[in-house]
Amino acid sequence: MENLKRFNTRDAGIFIFIAGFVLGILINSFIEISLYFSLFILVISASILIVEKIYLGKISKEIMLVSLLIFAIASGFLRYEYKDRRNINLDIEANVDEKVTIEGLVVGEPERKDNATRITVLPKDSREKILVSTDLYSHTAYGDRVEVAGKLQRPGIIEGDDGRDFDYAAYLSKDDIYYTISFAKVEIVSSGNGNPVKAFLFNIKNKFIEKIREILPEPESSLLAGLILAGKESLPKNILEEFRRAGIIHIVVLSGYNITIVAEFFLKIFGFLSYRIAALSAGGSIILFALMTGAEATVVRASLMALILVLGKIIGRGYSAPRALLVAGFLMLLENPKILVFDTSFKLSFLATLALIYAVPIVDKYLNRIPEKGGLRSIVGTTVATQLVVLPYLLYTMGNFSVVALISNILTLIFIPITMLVGFVASLVGFFSEFVAIPFAYIAHVLLGWILFVGERLGNLSWASFEVPIFPMWIVFLCYFVYVGIYWHHKNNQLSHTHS
Q: Which bin fits 143, alpha (ψ -120 to 50), beta or left (φ > 0)?
């Protein structure tokens, strides 16, 4: 019993610290907290423990947890303040709204979409990056030193037609981007100046995408690149709009669902090795894969959870999905606290994962009439649960409600794992023999064609989706309060049935 108490206290302490840390980041995202105030809060947390020890001779569990909460909130203040602190290059700042010529390093993978190529440039003697839009057919690559000519501007607020304004400046600041140059002229000064590991991984990725384009036509090739490698090259606007209206836009880019498939694939690939070596090899492969795909929020979250699973296998500990999610979120916020408020994909990814952990078991209770053959019941339960959980936040941020999302997800998700596997095999075999790759490519073409067909047919229905007016934040909180209540009611019913 004493061990159980210590275990519960320890778990409570970990949860309180992470909750306080998140709260501190959240507060500082909207209200500027000074460094001195944060340090003052830290002193208060320590003073509480000292006073308790002096006057009572011991520190109670309750006081310890209160002090820990205050300390965690102050830590969140400090971490956000450190991330938000700018080292302004006065030479660059003085030329805002002027035409400039700046030399810098391309520090991210170029993103080609619409009619332009977007690159992130880090100027000399600066820690603040510039987002540059240039010609669609620009040959710039990661690690190039470039000379950029154009009008330097600060990003601002993008006003939406539906009243939903987008703070573009805050969104870019999470990646330390504080300036933009549009319609820029870019000249490559030299190449091969980036991190050699990242350059190598990006090179492998680009060669793989090139091979996909050789064995598959458009738009199937772009869709497959998005499924297995998070290819930046976009599908045509009309197809993206169809996918958005059909509620399957999330499958266009690499998601946590896809990463889970990839992680399981690596574990099976290295299954012939000893237990620990297989887990270490799979863990290393997951890290390299996440880096290669650009390490977006959904990919990082899923990769961290997969790594925690692998670590559990190595040290012989059980895997707890809620704890893994909690640790993954904490590590991501520790690395970049601005994603909590200014990265929508981060929040959607965590809401979807929470749905998988807590909502799916409840939804499954009402799906007994759906057959389990082919994993149909699992797909329906997962789709319904995730759609319900992310819906309030989606309505708040984007305002689009897809009427056909449930059926379109059911019709496509069941084929995603096999599509990824066959597409990967076709591309890999294509490096050795395009003739041998033909049957795999044909199957992948059919499967990708089906996904595109579902998106086109359902997305083009006049009633497929509709725009929701401004969805207040208080309604969002109310919805999630109701969800929590439903979960606790379900849990208490389970406990009562267990004891009866």
A: left
